[in-house]
Amino acid sequence: MIRIALAGCGEHSRTSHATPLARYAATHPDEIELVAACDLNTEKADEFCRSFGFARAYDDLDRMLEVEQPDACVCVMPMEKIGEVGIKLLERGVPCVIEKPLGTSLPAIERLAQVARETQTPHMVSVNRRFMPFLNEARSWIHERGPLRYVRASQVRHRRSEPDFIWSTAIHAIDALRYIAGEVEKFDVAFSRGEMNEATWYLISLRFESGATGQVEILPTAGMVEESYELFGEGYRACVTAGSGTQRSLECWADGERVIVSHSTEDEPEDLRNGAYQEVEVFARALQTGNRPQPSIEDILPSARISFAIADRVGNSQPNEL
Hints:
- The chain has helices at 11-27, 42-52, 61-68, 79-91, 106-119, 133-145, 165-168, 171-181, 270-273, 276-289, 297-315; strands spanning 2-7, 32-38, 56-58, 72-75, 96-99, 123-126, 148-156, 184-192, 201-208, 213-219, 226-233, 236-241, 249-254, 257-263.
- By secondary structure, it is an alpha/beta fold.
- The protein starts with a strand and ends in a 7-residue tail after the last helix.
């Protein structure tokens, strides 16, 4: 029995972590136990216990770790606390799930990565795109068809004007393309800020070590929420739409014929569509079998480096035309 604690009871923790944890615990009652939830706001921790089945509530992380001695901890902190709490868990030898973007600066993330290397504590970075069923189905399908030549990702959002968007949220799309196409050999970026200094939009060009090329469009204030991934090779194309709710779909074409078409249904829970449940499943199974969960901080570090390099380049440049 794996005893799992949760640190951080905010809205993201509710939808992306507590919900799939509770679903997994309910369907695998002999595998994991939700022993505690912790938040500085005691009322939030109490509510998580009532809503998701955690046994006890805490308002102090150190106290929770000392009393409960959990086998693992899912850590969902504000960005400025991710590194600090992640380091605490790693140094205490507590296997953990750590949220992206892993920190608010590249030096902070590099420090977290160094601690992970030194401690060798099993851990997983929460990047749910790597676990999305449709994206993984497309990835498996293209690998059977032949070499990938071109990939394209588009991340569209509504009123997301925060200046950290490129490294706090767009890292998802960059990391997903690395997951699909492999390591990035080089990249370039064009960007625009609009006439009234609106949020920055980005067009990122990528060349992968495999020889494939790709682009990522980051449009954080384009009036809707949608994410799409297109994968191209000789004689084939796969398209994954990863929007909200039943927007999610997969279509594959081979030799001029559409051979796969799948759509999410209204009755399918969101955590099963967006990869959050599959992420919990992989983490729990790794702990049960003694394997190291993936992706690790080391796996995600190149995506963080690219994201922060883009932010630095844009911050020190004049806008280009998209």
